[in-house]
Design brief:
2 domains, globular, four-stranded antiparallel β-sheet, Double-stranded beta-helix, single chain, alpha+beta
């Protein structure tokens, strides 16, 4: 989890828009796809879509048909939410509404991840809850403009890459209800520790190493992966969005850590640089029922502001990028 509990106010700004004029007709879908290919991120308004059922027949035309869908990922425990909301559409992983979630690429915690992302708004929140899009090149430019420290941080990320450590608690841990991740039994499909560890170690596209730790006498299956800090697309390198932990490795967040790939933690000054760049590069608009956001998951990342009231945003994923 990465979050910030305080954030400055922001008026709607920046992101390319496409007005569907009340209906996503075949000709408008073609125009929409062309604009999305050009910009890499697009907020689609006035679609005429009342709910996810109305979206289903259009998924293929939007580039999210059954043959293109990416179905992996998702670490929220079933006790907190059901993963799939409709064919090809899932609920976003659960995080408390009062948190501001810093930008991240979807499923960027493993070597295989989706190239394209679709967000669909069925119920807009009463307040807040915007999904912001961040362009990787704008983030990189913001760090360069920040001066020597920003350029040094970019060099570290390019040289060392980014590490992610996450632990999966035992389902019988007395404080498991405070942790949103799956238990190790749920994640790896077995109650036997030896088998679960073997399954985890066999997932070499998700983890470099796995080991047992302990908390309050209960086993915790720890996992680690190191990923490149930049990803190539069509001969251009795009910076990945480093995660920033707002608190230390704790039981409630799966003891997660987000150091550089050499294991060294980002300094407070480096975290402040990143947070300033993240806030400076976010672009987005208030949700309305039926709105879509299409996002290139290599060229962009997304964040979410805190919100109040019900908010039903569903996500579709398509394409496959291998690292």
């Amino acid at each position: 989890m990465q979050s910030a509990r305080r954030h400055p106010a922001l008026t709607d700004t920046g992101l390319a828009r496409f007005d569907a004029q009340g209906a996503l007709t075949p000709s408008r879908l073609l125009q929409l796809r062309g604009q999305f290919d050009d910009t890499g991120a697009l907020h689609v308004t006035n679609t005429g879509l009342a709910d996810r059922a109305a979206l289903q027949p259009l998924m293929a035309a939007l580039g999210f048909g059954a043959g293109d869908q990416f179905s992996a990922g998702g670490r929220t425990a079933a006790a907190w939410q059901t993963k799939w909301a409709a064919p090809g559409l899932r609920q976003l992983d659960f995080y408390p509404p009062h948190l501001y979630l810093l930008p991240n690429g979807e499923i960027h915690y493993q070597r295989d991840f989706p190239e394209r992302i679709l967000f669909f708004c069925e119920t807009p929140p009463a307040a807040g809850g915007r999904t912001f899009i961040h362009a990787a090149k704008k983030l990189e430019s913001a760090l360069v403009v920040a001066g020597r420290a920003g350029r040094a941080l970019l060099d570290k990320i390019r040289t060392h890459g980014l590490m992610i450590e996450v632990g999966f608690l035992d389902r019988n841990h007395p404080q498991k209800a405070q942790n949103y991740f799956q238990s190790w039994q749920e994640r790896f499909g077995h109650d036997d520790r030896g088998v679960a560890l073997h399954v985890a170690q066999s997932r070499s596209r998700e983890y470099d190493s796995c080991w047992w730790a302990e908390d309050a006498g209960y086993p915790v299956l720890m996992t680690r992966i190191t990923l490149p800090g930049f990803v190539d697309k069509d001969g251009v390198d795009y910076m990945r969005f480093p995660r920033i932990a707002m608190d230390g490795p704790l039981l409630r967040n799966g003891f997660r850590r987000y150091p550089l790939g050499n294991g060294l933690e980002l300094s407070d000054a480096e975290k402040d640089l990143l947070k300033s760049a993240y806030l400076a590069t976010r672009e987005g608009y208030r949700w309305a029922q039926g709105d879509l956001i299409l996002m290139d998951n290599i060229r962009h990342a997304h964040s979410r502001e805190a919100f109040a009231g019900p908010r039903d945003i569903f996500i579709g994923m398509a394409g496959l990028k291998k690292l």
